[in-house]
Design goal:
The complex is a heterodimer of chains A (about 230) and B (about 290).
Chain A lengths: L2 H10 L7 H9 L1 H23 L5 H13 L18 H6 L6 H19 L14 H6 L6 H14 L6 H27 L4 H24 L6
Chain B lengths: L1 H28 L2 E8 L5 E16 L3 E8 L4 E8 L2 E8 L11 E8 L3 E14 L5 E5 L3 E5 L2 E8 L4 E4 L2 E8 L4 E4 L2 E9 L4 E4 L7 E6 L3 E6 L5 E7 L4 E3 L19 E7 L4 E7 L3 E6 L2
Parallel strand pairs in B: 2-5, 2-6, 2-7, 7-8, 7-9, 8-10, 9-11, 10-12, 11-13, 12-14, 13-15, 14-16, 15-17, 16-21, 17-22, 18-21, 19-22
Antiparallel strand pairs in B: 1-3, 3-6, 4-5, 18-20
The chains are: A mainly alpha (about 230), B mainly beta (about 290).
C-alpha cells in the first residue's frame, strides 16, 4: 500500500477502523503512523469537546459550516441542518471524514475558536453550563492534547515548505511565534476577565489567525505534491 | 628576450581567460524576458501567481492585456493562458532546488482600467495603479502599494504591509504582522485587521460608511477633520485611547457597550453619519485631528 492510498482510506474511514493492509502499512511507515496518531488525537479531542459541551444552537452549527466552507477547508456540502445529535456534535463532525488530516488542524483551530466566541458569548460565570465555575471554564479553553497536536501538524507543514526558501520559512515561523504569543496573552486575559466578552473575542481572533496561517502554509507547502 | 615572449604569452592567455569569464558572467546575469499580448473585451480577469519578485500593474486605455515577465535565471518559466476574458499568468519553477534569487521574477502588467485582478505572491512587492476593478491579493511577505484604485479590494497576508493611496470602494484586509496605511481613502466600507502591525486611516469618513479597524498590539491612528460625521466606538483592553475628537454622547441613543477594564470611548462627532469601530487588545488607539 502506498502513502497516498492510506491517506484516501483515512479520508473515508469514519469510525477509526482500518483495513488490514492499511494497518500493516502503518507499521512500516513512520510518516503515516504519525499521521494516523494525529488523526486519532484530533478525533479524541473532538470527542472530549463533544462530551463536555451540550448541543450548540442550530445557528452556531450553520455559521460554523459556512465559515469552514468559505475558508475552503470543508468541501463536503452536507446540509447545514444535519448536525449530529446525541453522540456529541464535534465528535460526530470529526467522524465525517475530513479530506486531509492536516486540514483537521485548521478545522480544530476554528472549532476551538467558535467555542470561544459564538457559543459561549455572553455567558456569565453563573450561567456557565454544568455548574462550572470560571476557573474550570477557562482551564478547559482548549481540549486536552489539541494544542500539542496542532503544533505537531504545524511543524510538519513548516518542514514541507519549499526547500531553500529560507525567507518564506522564516516569515511563517516568525508570524507563528507572534500568533502563539497572542494566544497565550489572550488566554491569560480570559482567565483574568472570564466574563469579559471582549477578552474572549480576542482569543477567538487569535485562534482564527493561527488557522489562517496554517492554511496559508499548507497552501505553500509541498504536501500536496507527495 | 624569451622571458619577454613568455610574459606576453601569459598576458594574452590571462586576457583571453578574463574575456571568456566576463562573457560567461554576462550570459548568466542576462534576464529572461517574456512579453505577451492578449486582446480582451469588456472587463477581463487577470490572475498572476508568482513566488518572488515585483509585480507592477497599471491601467491603460487599450482593450488588451500585456504581460512582461523578467526572470533572473532559467530556473523558472512564465506560463500564460487566455480563456475568454480570463488571463492567467503563472511562474513555474523548473529547477530542482533553486535558490530564492533564482526564482525571482518581475512582472509588468498593463490592463484595461476596469479589470479584475487576482494576485498571489509570496515575497517581493505588488504595486497597482489606477485599476478600477475588484482585486484580491494573497501574499506571505509581499508588500502592497495601491494607488488610485477603485472596487472591492480583498487582502490576505501573513507579513505583508499595505499602503493605499486615494483608494475608493471597499477594503477587507487581514495580516498578522503587516502595517496598513490608508491615505486619503474614499471608501465607505473598510475592515482591516492586523495582529502586531500598525493601522493608519487618514481620510474622510463617508456618510453611512463603516470603518472597522482592529489590532492586538501596535497603534491604530485615525485622523479626522472637523467636518467629519461619525459614531465612534474605540476600546483597548490593555492599552490606551487618545482622543482629540469633540465627541458627544451617542446621537442614536445606543447604549454604550460594556467596557469592563478596557479604556474606551463611545460617542458621536457631528451627526454621526458614519460608523467607526476601533479596537485593540493592548495597543494604543489615537483619534487625532488632521493638521
Amino acid at each position: 500500500m502506498q502513502c497516498n492510498e492510506l491517506e484516501q482510506i483515512l479520508e473515508q474511514e469514519s469510525d477509526g477502523a482500518l483495513p488490514p493492509a492499511a494497518a500493516s502499512h502503518l507499521k512500516d511507515c513512520a510518516g503515516c503512523a504519525a499521521l494516523w496518531e494525529d488523526f486519532q488525537a484530533i478525533r479524541q479531542a473532538g470527542g472530549e469537546l463533544g462530551a463536555q459541551e451540550p448541543e450548540p444552537p442550530e445557528r452556531v452549527w450553520a455559521a460554523l459550516r459556512m465559515q469552514l466552507e468559505s475558508e475552503g477547508l470543508v468541501r463536503d456540502s452536507a446540509p447545514a441542518s444535519s448536525a449530529p445529535a446525541a453522540a456529541g456534535w464535534l465528535s460526530g463532525w470529526f467522524g465525517r471524514a475530513p479530506r486531509l488530516v492536516l486540514a483537521c488542524s485548521c478545522l480544530a483551530v476554528l472549532l476551538v475558536a467558535v467555542f470561544l466566541s459564538d457559543y459561549n458569548r455572553g455567558w456569565t460565570v453563573a450561567e456557565f453550563p454544568s455548574g462550572a465555575n470560571s476557573a474550570v471554564a477557562t482551564a478547559s479553553l482548549t481540549p486536552s492534547g489539541l494544542d500539542s497536536t496542532l503544533d505537531g501538524n504545524i511543524k510538519r507543514v513548516m518542514a514541507s515548505l519549499p526547500a531553500g526558501d529560507v525567507a518564506l520559512t522564516d516569515s511563517f515561523e516568525h508570524n507563528l511565534g507572534i500568533v502563539d504569543d497572542l494566544i497565550e496573552g489572550c488566554k491569560k486575559s480570559v482567565r483574568e476577565q472570564p466574563n469579559n466578552p471582549m477578552a474572549r473575542e480576542y482569543l477567538y481572533g487569535a485562534y482564527q489567525q493561527k488557522a489562517v496561517l496554517l492554511a496559508t502554509a499548507m497552501d505553500r507547502s509541498t504536501l500536496e505534491d507527495r | 628576450m624569451n622571458t619577454g615572449i613568455h610574459s606576453a604569452s601569459r598576458f594574452a592567455v590571462a586576457g583571453a581567460t578574463m574575456a571568456v569569464l566576463l562573457l560567461s558572467g554576462s550570459a548568466d546575469a542576462q534576464t529572461h524576458r517574456v512579453e505577451k499580448h492578449f486582446a480582451v473585451q469588456g472587463n477581463p480577469v487577470v490572475t498572476v501567481q508568482n513566488a518572488a519578485g515585483h509585480i507592477q500593474v497599471k491601467a491603460w486605455d487599450k482593450h488588451e492585456v500585456m504581460i512582461v515577465g523578467n526572470s533572473a535565471t532559467n530556473s523558472v518559466e512564465v506560463d500564460t493562458e487566455q480563456v475568454g476574458n480570463r488571463i492567467e499568468v503563472v511562474t513555474r519553477v523548473t529547477a530542482e532546488h533553486p535558490s530564492p534569487a533564482d526564482i525571482q521574477t518581475d512582472y509588468e502588467v498593463s490592463v484595461p482600467t476596469e479589470s479584475e485582478l487576482q494576485i498571489r505572491t509570496d515575497s517581493g512587492g505588488v504595486t497597482v495603479d489606477s485599476v478600477h476593478g475588484d482585486m484580491s491579493f494573497d501574499t506571505v511577505a509581499a508588500d502592497l502599494a495601491l494607488q488610485d484604485v477603485a472596487g472591492y479590494v480583498m487582502i490576505k497576508s501573513i507579513a505583508g504591509s499595505l499602503v493605499c493611496t486615494r483608494c475608493a470602494g471597499r477594503l477587507d484586509a487581514t495580516s498578522i504582522s503587516g502595517n496598513f496605511q490608508l491615505i486619503q481613502p474614499v471608501m465607505n466600507d473598510v475592515r482591516v485587521q492586523t495582529s502586531s502591525g500598525n493601522i493608519l486611516f487618514d481620510g474622510d469618513f463617508q456618510s453611512r460608511g463603516i470603518y472597522i479597524l482592529k489590532n492586538y498590539s501596535g497603534t491604530i491612528e485615525v485622523r479626522f477633520s472637523s467636518n467629519d460625521s461619525f459614531d465612534v466606538n474605540a476600546a483597548s483592553l490593555y492599552g490606551n485611547v487618545i482622543n482629540q475628537a469633540p465627541v458627544v454622547p451617542d446621537r442614536h441613543q445606543m447604549p454604550a457597550p460594556r467596557s469592563n477594564m478596557a479604556k474606551s470611548l463611545f460617542g458621536s462627532l457631528n451627526e454621526g453619519h458614519a460608523k467607526v469601530e476601533l479596537s485593540s487588545f493592548s495597543g494604543t488607539i489615537k483619534i487625532l485631528k488632521r493638521e
